[in-house]
Amino acid sequence: DVKVTQSSRYLVKRTGEKVFLECVQDMDHENMFWYRQDPGLGLRLIYFSYDVKMKEKGDIPEGYSVSREKKERFSLILESASTNQTSMYLCATRGWHPSTNYGYTFGSGTRLTVV
Amino acid sequence: QKEVEQNSGPLSVPEGAIASLNCTYSDRGSQSFFWYRQYSGKSPELIMSIYSNGDKEDGRFTAQLNKASQYVSLLIRDSQPSDSATYLCAVNTGNQFYFGTGTSLTVIP
User: Contacts of residue A43 in chain B, CB cutoff 8 Å?
Assistant: First the structure.
């Protein structure tokens, strides 16, 4: 069974902390994405990567950065957490797989609360 | 205009009925279309994909695509309470992937 694994299901962090969200996939997909999801706003793309060492800004990159040192791992970094970054964070991959065609496969999500 | 539009609902149907979920998209060049189901507090999971005009059936689910009218729909036959979730429509256009904001479905026992 293919997997996209996010390291934490729930996180509580303090304002100003540097926060790392990790995502690991075993699907051998080049394309990886970070989204946040908020009620009424849907999925919003933060950053994506089409290859190792490569990163591109999505629609809402401010306050975030990413790292992709290996193909299977894509990390999202909140440089200085703020309360408006409280959200559900979803990692996803995209590539060919018989169960998904070229659709996205999502990780289980990280519910981040910044206090 | 948003790339992908869905009625946010909520949509309520009685158990055993047909639930019909609709999605419109703006780019005529869109090539592939996906439906995801998302339970409360969980991540989206793919339930259907469709690439060609017409219907595609998978168990109780049928995806319908009409490229001329730029809409894609999802029918759920014999709806069950376990189908209660938010359904996201997603459209692939070139290298871009666009999600709708989702339709909330409640199946009433």
Answer: 88, 99
